[in-house]
Amino acid sequence: MDETLELQPCRVQLVREIASRPKIGGSFRVTGWLRQFDPACRCGRICQETSQIPVDLAEVNISGVQDGDLVQVLGEMCSREAPAHHPSGSATYAELILKARIVRRVHGMDMGLYARCLQVRREFEARFCPDHA
Hints:
Blueprint: E1 11-13, H1 15-20, E2 27-38, E3 43-48, E4 51-56, E5 70-83, E6 92-105, H2 111-128
Parallel strand pairs: 1-2, 4-6
Antiparallel strand pairs: 2-3, 2-5, 3-4, 5-6
């Protein structure tokens, strides 16, 4: 029997939108700067303006990707155990992280124009595609 993995389409979001309202199990496409990238653990953070989300790059080809690159990540939000330093005083806590399935460099993208285009797209979909939500 051939089982196929059924992936959900990614919802285009800004980093600040995911950071303020993370949804476990949601599929997202997000664009931002890769910071605190550690090739050894294949993890880092996607940042835009003052917002950031952790990203797990363990399952994707990261050749040519470097700390500071502007990247677009497609993946799913999930939780993982993170080390202490949490206000609750527990030894570990559940951290939400974007588990990447695709990463691509998008060097040169105008992020202001990108955000404006996303806004226009959402206005269009709200008006003409109300069932698209």
